[in-house]
Specification:
The chain has 125 residues and is mainly α. It contains four helices and no strands. The termini are far apart.
């Protein structure tokens, strides 16, 4: 018969487990990827606009073309923040309190980026 104390200290639910610490590191690393994601999102958005026959010098780009180019670019931009949120929450679920900070930063960053891009779209119309 197994006892409650027979569980390994490095199990997935043990406080400070290897998996939980690894998730915290991954969450912070994903947050570091926000800058390269921004550059990549700009390139993706510009490329998708150029595929539709528009460039940055065009004064007025139709809403449909803007959404077709901006949607995928926005996904590229927020992906690292969402990954940081998910890894941070998973670390928190495994009783690693250090996962809360990157989770909050990732969630706030993703939300802010989406809101700012939607506001920019509305104001530019």
């Amino acid at each position: 018969m197994a006892h409650a104390h027979s569980r390994s200290a490095s199990g997935p639910l043990a406080p400070g487990s290897t998996k939980a610490r690894r998730d915290v590191r991954r969450a912070w690393l994903w947050l570091l990827m926000l800058l390269p994601a921004f550059v990549l999102a700009v390139l993706v958005g510009d490329w998708l606009l150029s595929l539709q026959g528009y460039d940055n010098s065009d004064e007025t780009v139709p809403l449909g073309a803007t959404v077709l180019a901006g949607g995928p670019a926005l996904l590229v931009l927020v992906a690292p923040a969402i990954a940081a949120l998910l890894y941070g929450l998973r670390a928190r679920r495994h009783d690693q309190p250090a996962g809360l900070t990157p989770a909050l930063v990732g969630g706030i960053a993703a939300s802010a980026l989406v809101v700012l891009n939607v506001i920019a779209l509305i104001v530019s119309r």
